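Sample intake sheet
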Amino acid sequence: MRVIVVRNDRLGDFMLAWPAVQMLARNLPGVDVCLLARDYTLPMARLCPGVSDVFCDPGLGGELANARALARLLRPERFEAALALFSRFDTALGLALARIPRRVAPATKAAQIFYTQRLRQRRSRSLRPEWLYNVELAEFFLAALGVDSPVRPASPYLSFPAEAVRRTRAGLAARLSFDPERPLVLLHPGHGGSSPTLPPSGFARIGQELADAGAELVLSQGPGDEAAVAAVAGALGGVPHHVYVSTEGLDAYARTVAAADLFVAGSTGPLHVAGALDVPTAAFYPSRRSASAVRWQTLNSEDRRLAFMPPAGAAEDDFAAIDLGDASARIRSLLERVVRRRERAPTDPRT
C-alpha cells in the first residue's frame, strides 16, 4: 500500500507536519508513506524519518494548470490514499484527477468537495497548536484505514548522529573563529512568513544578555535576511558576534542548527526546524490569534521552549511592549539550564 501526505506550503507549516507524517509511518508498518512538498522544502522532506519517497509540487501558475500537472505526476504512482494536511483547491482537484480512491483533508474551504472524507477542525479559532491539528487529522486518517489507538511519536522529530553534530559544530567554530566549548546561540532575525518579528534593538538586547552569560553569538542569515542581519549586527555594536550565511541548502542549515545550544527567533520556518531537532528555543510572536504562540507552538519539549507576545492592551505587533528585561533574563536562565544539563551528560554532541 502507498499513501501520500500533502503539506506543500511554507517551511514552518511543513515542519509542523512531521509528527503527523511520522505517526503514519509508525502505525502503518509495511506501507510506503510519501510526501508532497514545495521545491524549496524538498531537502528537509528527504530528511523526515519514515518517509519512503518525496514528490515536488509542480508549482505552476494557475490552479487548474497546477491541478492537472499534479495529477500527471501522481497518477502513475497508484496511491491508494492521500492525506492533505492543508486544503488548497489545486491540490484537492489534483488528487481527485490522479484517481486516488481515498482522499482525506480538513473540512474547510470550497476545496473540501474534492475529498472523500473530511474532518471539521475549525483551525481558524487557533485553540490548539498547528502540529496537534495535523496529528488529529492523521488519527482520523488512520481510523479510516482501520487503525485504532495509534501511537503518537515524541520529540525529537529530527536528529543527526552525535559525532556528525560534533563535527558540524567544530567546523562552524573553525570557520567563524569562535570557541566551540562555549555555549552556542543562534539569533535568527529574519522572517519569511507573514508574522512580524522582534526589532533589531530587541535581538541586540537579548544578544548582549547572552554574551554576558558567556555565550558565542552567531547571527543566522538565509536568503533575503541580509538587511535584518546587518541591522542586528549594527545594533549589537561592540558585542562580539559572528554571522553564519546559509548557502548550502536547508539540509545543511538543519545540521548547523542541531549544533546550537539555543535558537532565538521570531515565528518563522527556521524556528520550527530548531523545534523539530529539540534544540531549545526562545520565540517572539505577534498577539494576533491566527499567528499566536499557541497556534504556532514549536515541536521541542515543553521545558526547552519559551514564547513571548505583546501583552494584553498592546497592539498585536507591538514588540516594544514586551518586557525585554524579563524576557532576556528568562532566556538566559534557559541557556544556563541547558549548559548545566550538558555538563551532567558529557555524551551530548554539543560538548
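Comment: The domain at 162-344 is CATH 3.40.50.2000 (Rossmann fold). The chain has two domains: 2-144, 162-344.
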